[in-house]
Amino acid sequence: MINTLVVGEIKDGKLSENSFDLLKISDKLSDRTSLVLCTSSQDNVPLDDIKILPVDFIYLLKIPSLDIDRGIYDIDTYALSVFLNSKDFNLILFSKSEYGSVVAPRVAFRNKKKYLSDCTGISLKEDLFLIERPIYGGVAIAEYQVSTNISPVFSIRSGLQNLDDISNNKIAAIEEIDIQFNEPHPAKMIEEYSNDSLEEIKLEDAKIIVSGGRGLGNEIAFEELKKLANLLGGALGASRAACDAGWIDHSLQIGLTGKTVTPDLYISVGISGASQHLAGCSMSKNIVAINNDKDANIFNVARFGVIGDWNQIIKSFISSIEDLSLK
Question: Is 208-326 a CATH 3.40.50.170 domain?
Answer without folding.
Answer: no
